[in-house]
């Protein structure tokens, strides 16, 4: 029995689809089960609720062999609350039920000078350490920014802009959520591995945000330019949208670390390289979302 969290999310939905082809029994923890396609609800056991809830996650892990863990995006009080504290009930249930294998989504940055001061990344790595302490074998899929994040800027792209706090010429890795989901599913289905390890998962090529905007321009047939936003202006924007100050600072600290090269520290030789280029992703996902 494989348990999958966030089965309707960007990554989780790909984990589920990939695992359905293996014939492994699946149990999905879903806050809103109605969002799952009927074909998936018919082929998997559904546990309604949040995997941050002790009773829900305890019920879901009873009799399970493996778990896919991803903390959902929650702009709560602090980065630690959204990662470590959210995961505590799950870690307790893993230890209680003697679960053997956990695949968890985390961030690049472990072992770098940025790890203690990278905000959301710092919290995510500490969350993985909490899971490692359960006694289960844990594989952390350490990610850069998702290509899918561009879907949050559809309105701006239609107006010819992409924006963010990263230097326009800083080449960084990115990865498609589908490739992360496939990597997670392969580890969950073939549980011959053990121990504790973080494995980078990156796309075929690093790109600067200026290059990403140029690719989007070519794919969409419109002029799109990348605009860099100062860190203090972005934080003011985040808090103005209702985000807690400490959480917004955690986001800024993460972006600052990425801008200084944190995501470039992981060697490609030891990484899982996704098959999806940014151009292909833009053609298959972004262009249909933008429409005519």
Written description of the protein model:
This protein has 292 residues and is an alpha/beta fold. The chain is built from 11 helices and 12 strands. The chain has an 8-stranded parallel sheet with strand order 3-2-1-4-5-6-10-12, sandwiched between helices. A two-stranded parallel ribbon has the order 7-9. The protein is globular. The relative contact order is 0.15. The mean pLDDT is 95.
Features:
292 residues, alpha/beta, eight-stranded parallel beta sheet, two-stranded parallel sheet, 12 strands, 42% helix
Specify the oligomeric state: single chain
Shape: globular
CATH architecture of the domain at 2-146 and 175-205 and 260-275: 3-Layer(aba) Sandwich
* Terminal CA distance: 44 Å
DSSP helical segment count: 11
Determine and state the CATH class of the domain at 2-146 and 175-205 and 260-275: Alpha Beta
Biggest sheet descriptor: 8 strands, parallel
The order of strands across the largest sheet is 3-2-1-4-5-6-10-12
Work out the strand percent: 15-25%
Brief rundown of the structure:
The protein is α/β, with parallel strands linked by helices. It has helices at 12-20, 38-43, 54-61, 79-97, 120-132, 154-158, 177-189, 209-220, 231-240, 245-259, 278-290; strands spanning 2-4, 26-30, 45-48, 66-69, 101-107, 137-143, 145-146, 161-164, 174-175, 196-202, 225-228, 272-273.
């Amino acid at each position: 029995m494989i348990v999958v969290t966030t089965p309707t999310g960007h990554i989780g939905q790909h984990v589920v689809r990939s695992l359905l082809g293996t014939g492994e029994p699946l149990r999905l923890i879903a806050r809103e089960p109605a969002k799952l396609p009927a074909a998936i609800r018919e082929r998997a056991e559904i546990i309604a609720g949040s995997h941050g809830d002790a009773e829900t996650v305890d019920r879901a892990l009873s009799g399970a062999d493996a778990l896919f863990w991803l903390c959902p995006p929650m702009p709560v009080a602090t980065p630690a609350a959204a990662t470590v504290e959210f995961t505590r009930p799950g870690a307790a249930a893993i230890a209680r039920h003697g679960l053997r294998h956990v695949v968890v989504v985390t961030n690049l940055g472990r072992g770098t000078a940025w790890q203690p001061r990278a905000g959301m990344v710092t919290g995510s790595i500490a969350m993985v350490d909490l899971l490692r302490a359960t006694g289960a074998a844990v594989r952390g899929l350490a990610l850069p920014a998702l290509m899918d994040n561009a879907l949050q800027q559809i309105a701006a792209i239609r107006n010819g802009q992409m924006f963010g706090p990263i230097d326009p010429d800083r080449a960084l890795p990115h990865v498609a959520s589908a490739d992360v989901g496939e990597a997670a599913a392969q580890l969950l289905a073939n549980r011959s591995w053990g121990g504790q390890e973080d494995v980078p998962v990156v796309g075929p090529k690093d790109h600067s945000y200026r290059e990403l905007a140029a690719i989007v321009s070519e794919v969409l047939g419109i002029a799109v330019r990348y605009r860099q936003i100062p860190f203090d202006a972005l934080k003011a924007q985040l808090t103005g949208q209702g985000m807690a100050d400490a959480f917004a600072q955690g986001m800024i600290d993460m972006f600052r670390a990425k801008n200084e090269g944190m995501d470039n520290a992981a060697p490609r030789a030891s990484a899982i390289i996704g098959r999806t280029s940014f151009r292909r992703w833009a053609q298959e996902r972004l262009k249909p979302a933008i429409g005519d």
